[in-house]
Structures are given as structure tokens and as C-alpha cells.
Amino acid sequence: MLNIISLFKQLIKCPSLSPLDSGCQIIINNRLKKIGFNIKYININKTINTWAYRGVGKNLLFAGHTDVVSSGNINNWITLPFIPILKKKKIFGRGSADMKGSLAAIIIAIENFIKYNPNHKGQISLILTSDEESDATDGTIKVIKKLKKIKKKIDYCIIGEPSSKKYIGDNIKNGRRGSLNVNLIIYGKQGHIAYPNLAKNPIHESNNFIKNLILNKWGYKNIIFEPTILQISNIYTDNINNLNNIIPNKININFNLRFNNEININKIINEIKIMLINNNLKYYMKWKILGKPFYTNKNNLLDIIKKSIYLYNKKYPKISTEGGTSDGRFIYKICKQIVELGLKNKTIHKFNEYINIIELKKLSVIYQNIIKNILL
């Protein structure tokens, strides 16, 4: 398993800030070619995408991303973000947990499986993208569109997103809530701050609406999903010079809703419009659906993964649909059995992101056991 550390360090050294890949997929694909994979690049704008496959028949897909979020101020790191350093069985580096560690674990698992089972049944495939952490407009969504066009169907899909909490495999995900971004402009009337009677302050005018927005019960949780929640991400005005003697002309409010299957987009938008009308606000609103809720019910893949995890942990994993969106929302169009299983999510997107090498090796062994149980 020493090979896994070498591969992992190679990937960390690639400064693949989304949507850049910076050579990660070349490293991975060169290894896959050596064990008989067909490699097809589906590159769009700055995004690098890979569709790789080996064999025919029942299909097991591994999906992941090579891009990472910004490392932020490097002075807040104990190591350089793209120089993998080993300290007390931990390797630090941006993207180590999310999700270059899982990618290394997947590749080593596949290599080891094929080494002992070169004539395996079925098909192993991979979708890799460098556009998961940013807009996700040129990545997996475009690969799935091409696969759907040729009527490609996937039987099983494992996404290597960091799903574990306290130990590897304690938590897996079989679905996610949908995500809706709303950009709202509320108009007032610009004027001198000393003469509010001659102006209309959109900040003051929208105060009650914002309170309604926050306190509104958008939906309740059910046996599958957490409740629908709303979070405001930004509020700003057109007072770009930050002058303290101007009442602004408009206020911009950006917010997101993570919604479950108890509510639909039309209902959400209608409720927001009613709040705006009730507060006599002049507004402009646009919204974008980043993904709809998806859910994998009890099935073969879930059972196989649970048993594989139990084999090494002597405990079954908790199954949840918590967290943000993932590329599973796109893959669901051609595969109805999707499970997310990866490293611990404790340090993802944080300064000093790291993984434990023992946990990395363990994850790879679990992946290998899952492959064996599906394709043998």
C-alpha cells in the first residue's frame, strides 16, 4: 500500500484550483491506461473531464473531482498547501480530504482488484472532473449529457466525497437535498441621509421582509431528508464608495435554500413573492436551481457497501442525506443507485486540511472489497 502514498502526494502537488485540473487527471489516466482502461477526455472551456472504462456488462462507476477550493492565506497553514508534508501519520495539503485522498484510494483499489482479477466480469468506470468546487457547469453535468446521448446506463455509482465523521465508514450518504440560489434586488429611492423624507431607504424598507424570510418555516424533515432551510449569504447596496451621507437606491440580497422533497421550487418562489408583496416592496428577482433532491432507496449497492464496511469496522454505517450538493445530482439521471463514501470531512475547505494515512489505506481496502462483491 506504499503506492497509495506516492500517488496521493503526486495529486496534492498539483495546484488544481477549480476549475483547473493542473495535471491530476493525466497522472490518474496514465495509470488507468496501463491496466487496460479506455480513456476519453471531454474537455469544456477550462474544465478537464475524463470518462474512463474497462470491461463490459454490469457497470460500477466511481465518480470524483480533482479540483480544490482556494487555500486562502498561506500564513494560516502549518505547511505549504500544495507541498504534502507527513506529520504524525497525517499528510497535510489542500484537497487531501476533499477529495484527492479518495481518488488515490479508488485508483489503488482498482489496480489491486485487476491485478488479482484481470478477467473480471462487468465494467469498472470513472468520471473525473475539475469543475465540482466552482460552478459545476462544464463538469460532470456535461459528461452525463454525453453518456445519456449514447444511452449509457450505470448500474452502481460510488462517489468519493468525504462522508465519514469520527472514523472511516461510520457515515455514508444515499442522497442529498436540492439547492436553490436566489438573487433579489429591492429598490428604494436614493437621497441625502439628512433628508430621509425626500428618499426611500431600501434597507429600512426591507427589514421586515428579511425577518420574515429568516423566520419562515419552509418545510419539515421526513424519514429521508433534513428540513428545508434558508440561509442568507450576502447583503449589499449600490453605495459602492461606502459614503455615509447617502441613502442607497437599492439593496441586493443573496440567499440559498436547501430543499427536500416536501416542497417544490414553484411553492418556494411563490412564498417569497407573497412576502415581497405583503411588504409593499418593489423588486427584481432571479433564481437558479443548482440541483434537485435525489435519493437512493434500499438496494444492492447500499447492502454491499454496508457489509463491506462492517467487515472492517464491525459496525454498520449510519446512512444520511445531510450536507450540501454533490455531483450525484447529475449522475442520478443515468444511475439510480448512488452512495457517497469517502474520508473524514473534519478539515475539508479549512486551513491545514489533512488526512490520516492509516485511514487512507483502510478506505482503499473497503473500496476494493466493494468492487470484488459487485464484479465477481
UniProtKB/TrEMBL annotation:
<dbReference type="GO" id="GO:0008270">
    <property type="term" value="F:zinc ion binding"/>
</dbReference>
<feature type="binding site">
    <location>
        <position position="98"/>
    </location>
    <ligand>
        <name>Zn(2+) 1</name>
    </ligand>
</feature>
<keyword id="KW-0862">Zinc</keyword>
<dbReference type="InterPro" id="IPR011650">
    <property type="entry name" value="Peptidase_M20_dimer"/>
</dbReference>
<keyword id="KW-0220">Diaminopimelate biosynthesis</keyword>
<dbReference type="GO" id="GO:0050897">
    <property type="term" value="F:cobalt ion binding"/>
</dbReference>
<dbReference type="InterPro" id="IPR050072">
    <property type="entry name" value="Peptidase_M20A"/>
</dbReference>
<protein>
    <recommendedName>
        <fullName>Succinyl-diaminopimelate desuccinylase</fullName>
        <ecNumber>3.5.1.18</ecNumber>
    </recommendedName>
</protein>
<feature type="binding site">
    <location>
        <position position="161"/>
    </location>
    <ligand>
        <name>Zn(2+) 1</name>
    </ligand>
</feature>
<feature type="active site">
    <location>
        <position position="67"/>
    </location>
</feature>
<keyword id="KW-0378">Hydrolase</keyword>
<keyword id="KW-0457">Lysine biosynthesis</keyword>
<feature type="binding site">
    <location>
        <position position="98"/>
    </location>
    <ligand>
        <name>Zn(2+) 2</name>
    </ligand>
</feature>
<keyword id="KW-0170">Cobalt</keyword>
<feature type="binding site">
    <location>
        <position position="65"/>
    </location>
    <ligand>
        <name>Zn(2+) 1</name>
    </ligand>
</feature>
<feature type="domain" description="Peptidase M20 dimerisation">
    <location>
        <begin position="174"/>
        <end position="276"/>
    </location>
</feature>
<keyword id="KW-0028">Amino-acid biosynthesis</keyword>
<dbReference type="GO" id="GO:0019877">
    <property type="term" value="P:diaminopimelate biosynthetic process"/>
</dbReference>
<dbReference type="InterPro" id="IPR002933">
    <property type="entry name" value="Peptidase_M20"/>
</dbReference>
<comment type="pathway">
    <text>Amino-acid biosynthesis; L-lysine biosynthesis via DAP pathway; LL-2,6-diaminopimelate from (S)-tetrahydrodipicolinate (succinylase route): step 3/3.</text>
</comment>
<dbReference type="Pfam" id="PF07687">
    <property type="entry name" value="M20_dimer"/>
</dbReference>
<dbReference type="GO" id="GO:0008777">
    <property type="term" value="F:acetylornithine deacetylase activity"/>
</dbReference>
<comment type="function">
    <text>Catalyzes the hydrolysis of N-succinyl-L,L-diaminopimelic acid (SDAP), forming succinate and LL-2,6-diaminopimelate (DAP), an intermediate involved in the bacterial biosynthesis of lysine and meso-diaminopimelic acid, an essential component of bacterial cell walls.</text>
</comment>
<dbReference type="InterPro" id="IPR001261">
    <property type="entry name" value="ArgE/DapE_CS"/>
</dbReference>
<dbReference type="GO" id="GO:0009089">
    <property type="term" value="P:lysine biosynthetic process via diaminopimelate"/>
</dbReference>
<dbReference type="Pfam" id="PF01546">
    <property type="entry name" value="Peptidase_M20"/>
</dbReference>
<feature type="binding site">
    <location>
        <position position="133"/>
    </location>
    <ligand>
        <name>Zn(2+) 2</name>
    </ligand>
</feature>
<dbReference type="InterPro" id="IPR005941">
    <property type="entry name" value="DapE_proteobac"/>
</dbReference>
<feature type="binding site">
    <location>
        <position position="349"/>
    </location>
    <ligand>
        <name>Zn(2+) 2</name>
    </ligand>
</feature>
<keyword id="KW-0479">Metal-binding</keyword>
<dbReference type="GO" id="GO:0006526">
    <property type="term" value="P:L-arginine biosynthetic process"/>
</dbReference>
<feature type="active site" description="Proton acceptor">
    <location>
        <position position="132"/>
    </location>
</feature>
<dbReference type="InterPro" id="IPR036264">
    <property type="entry name" value="Bact_exopeptidase_dim_dom"/>
</dbReference>
<dbReference type="GO" id="GO:0009014">
    <property type="term" value="F:succinyl-diaminopimelate desuccinylase activity"/>
</dbReference>
<comment type="similarity">
    <text>Belongs to the peptidase M20A family. DapE subfamily.</text>
</comment>
<comment type="subunit">
    <text>Homodimer.</text>
</comment>
